[in-house]
Amino acid sequence: MRLLVLGTGVMAKNQVANFLAIDGVEVVGAVDTDLVRLAEFADHFHIEKRFQTLEEAIAWGEFDSATNVTPDRIHHATSLALIAAGKHVFCEKPLAENYADALEMTETAEAAGVVNMVNLTYRNVAPLQRAREMVLAGELGTIRHVEASYLQSWLVSRAWGDWRTESRWLWRLSTGHGSNGVLGDVGIHILDFAAYGAATDIDHVFARLKTFNKAPGGQIGEYLLDANDSFTMSVDFTNGALGVIHATRWATGHLNELKLRIYGEKGSLEVIHRPDGSDLRGCFGEDIETAIWRDIEVPAVLTNYQRFAEAVRTGKQDDPTFRHAANLQKVIDLAIVSEKERRELNLLEASEQDSPADKRIPPLTVVV
């Protein structure tokens, strides 16, 4: 697979390191409007071909796939250009800023017959994959309740850098710079973590969003800090379970932690993922009476990067697809509407609602 890297920021470095570890993958070019950042990135990974625009890279054309690691609002136009050129696309999350754009990207990719995948990175967490297998095998019985949280502390900690002075963080706090806040940034991760792990989908949502004052006048330089910092959701799942999902950047003491608890009639599971590792615990059988939780061993799984490379090699589509990510984007869009209107929304009737971008939200295609 000959891979083009579009965008050479922090996440691109992580992606390329993973792609280069795969046999048969060659990173043949890189694109960035920032020439200094581009040179540093390309020098580090020994990438010869360097382009300041995607148009230049497409005109060159000596690649068959691309990873789109641009800011959120750039995903739509750049992915469509790549698809039009017949290139397979691996796109960072979220797929787009709204469901209408995400659906257009999905339908265009499907019509073109190119491999399309979204880097929902926590699919790489082996305990999550094993939890889903156990749910699908009926080991938990009927699922009744689901809890999921995504906790970060970079608004109170400098462990990853200082958001007050670094543009790579500041843009994530500003809707004017293409951010939908913590809901748009990591909300898609925890929604996928919950629904995928519990082997179901969301069909109703009621959400609350909160933006806290972080600077005098709510602004730092050109960045108006108006994107949401925290959200909570009450959701209904298509399997009949009730769920609570929340995320925040104010979780002091939690650098980057995802947690999922799935409660069923026969047993329960807990998945925890932190920067230093992942765990799966369960409570089953006689342990239910004494509330004893035991560790469950989990085999390694293929990463999104490995599965994308294999999909390109074989021409066989793999998950998570653009369509799946678009459906998650629909939940995010309606969560924003739910906050504004202070009411629960039914995703199956969402064609009657307006998205935050005043674009009609087509009916959801449920994909488990």
UniProtKB/TrEMBL annotation:
Keyword Cell inner membrane: no
Enzymatic class: oxidoreductase
Residue span(s) of domain Gfo/Idh/MocA-like oxidoreductase N-terminal: 2-119
Enzyme Commission code(s) on record: 1.1.1.18
Stored InterPro entries: Gfo/Idh/MocA-like_OxRdtase_N (IPR000683), Gfo/Idh/MocA_oxidrdct_glycsds (IPR050463), GFO_IDH_MocA-like_dom (IPR055170), NAD(P)-bd_dom_sf (IPR036291)
Gene3D superfamilies: Dihydrodipicolinate Reductase, domain 2 (3.30.360.10), NAD(P)-binding Rossmann-like Domain (3.40.50.720)
GO MF annotations in UniProt: inositol 2-dehydrogenase (NAD+) activity; nucleotide binding
One Pfam assignment: GFO_IDH_MocA_C3
Coiled coil: none
Keywords: Oxidoreductase
SUPFAM superfamilies in the record: Glyceraldehyde-3-phosphate dehydrogenase-like, C-terminal domain, NAD(P)-binding Rossmann-fold domains
Signal peptide segment: none
Keyword Oxidoreductase: yes
Domain GFO/IDH/MocA-like oxidoreductase intervals: 129-270
Membrane-spanning residues: none
Protein name, entry field: Inositol 2-dehydrogenase/D-chiro-inositol 3-dehydrogenase
Species whose genome carries this gene: Rhizobium favelukesii
UniProt gene name: thuB
